[in-house]
Amino acid sequence: MALALGIEGSANKVGVGIVREDGTILSNPRHTYITPPGQGFLPRETAIHHQEHIVGLVQQALKEAGVLPADISCIAYTKGPGMGGPLVTCAVVARMLALLWKVPIIGVNHCVGHIEMGRIVTGAKDPVVLYVSGGNTQVIAYSERRYRIFGETIDIAVGNCLDRFARVLNLSNDPSPGYNIEQLAKEGERLIEMPYAVKGMDVSFSGLLSFIEGAAAELLEKGEATPADLCFSLQETVFAMLVEITERAMAHCNAPDVLIVGGVGCNLRLQEMMAIMVSERGGRLYSTDDRYCIDNGAMIAWPGMLAFKQGQITELEDSTCTQRFRTDEVEVTWRE
Amino acid sequence: MVCENGEGASTSKNIFDDPIINLQTCQLLSQGAEAKIWEGVYLGRPTIVKQRFRKKYRHSTLDNKLTLSRLKQEVRSIVRARKLGVPTPVLYFVEHEASTIYMELVQGCSVKAALLEGKLSDQERHALLREIGRVVALLHDGGMVHGDLTTSNMLLKGDSSLVLIDFGLSSNTTLPEDKAVDLYVLERAFASAHAASGNLFDDILASYRQHSRLWCPTLNKFAEVRMRGRKRTMVG
What we know:
A: Nucleotidyltransferase, domain 5; 10 helices; 13 strands; 43% helix; B: 10 strands; serine/threonine-protein kinase (chain B); Prot_kinase_dom (chain B); kinase (chain B)
């Protein structure tokens, strides 16, 4: 059976995955660039991190899968969206491998990668997708050969809001700022009132972030809130907004099931809130854990394989990458 | 949108105080994203009963605040919109305690259904789209935005007149920004639900431009808002 090797590195994770034609993941190693507390990751340093690890990850992926380069049928890489430097790093490696191994190359949209990975891992047929990560916040449903965006953030992504709040509290970025907020939030008790911005099926987080960045120091100093209370309140507020717009999209498209993908999607509180909403509507929630929610190589390899089977390959001279690449720009040829 | 089940009636009765009309004697018509819609009779008139249900996923403090503010806003906006001449259902009664609104039952179907079924002739469809543009312009010129303009929130009556419903996210504003976002939400609703029918939204926009006194600043802002969606392909 055909094998696809996928390379992902659009943000601070670099990963290589090998996936078989039937959707079986043979290997999926990745490495995360972790910055000191209080700092985010910058494109240049992130690209250097990826350059240092990517070849080792390709070797590791082949070894863990127990396959040889000659067994690989195609190379898939992230075309976008993401950070320029890291994307270029992975694209260069993908091109090199494609030439070296004489196999076709396929550019994959990162968001579509998350959706297709979520679908194959959970078995969800036609869910409303909530895609939440550090760079993206979208409510998506499939219609007429496109993953259409019903609602999205009109400013910053929810993961970005959480990450930047973690810097205010100087929380560790290991394994991820969001994970540490989630753990601390479990001890929170008081709900601090925060701006709640839902506009139709869209959300906005920038006002909320400005509010909490400004108010946090004073609330903590006066003893009106603990760091745990702030994490708790932030999570309750932003997740309520996300569940609300997801429900609006479900009501609008008359769809019962939800799939959560993206890095923020492994937050158990978000999954819990979504599960309550979905069960009230008589549907099912499909979610995955950190192996698949967080960026990885297999999520690029799998849509690459789907496109490959449809004969959709990218010419070498077109194997560029782009920081701006919307989910709904991709024609989904592999679904009815 | 329609999710008919007998359970809805009994669960919501446990959560809320008894509304004036016993909801169990009414018929559950549909469950939207944040309210259940029932059909019944109030003072001898056919009535829609809209009950905002508790969102169990939301922290109760946050939920109470949002439910109450949206109920109030919806009631105020229905009254205000009618004064402006925007067709809305007639408001009969409001029960704050039970988060329930009683209003006129409008006979008709949603614009979404009408467009998707494709029973409208080209002429009728054109007239409907122009009417949407006119009504939204009227609302905006009166200093209001709807906040959730979708084809599910517009009803088409038997005499082909249009009625706007669901004012829960509406607000009073005269800012071009807010009006532009209102139009943007509508455009996206068309792009997602009626993508197969072509550029229906262009007709709405043309009619809006013709009917709104303040179209210029709003549509300039609208062009800006359209550019805002994240990760769009841009040149330069």
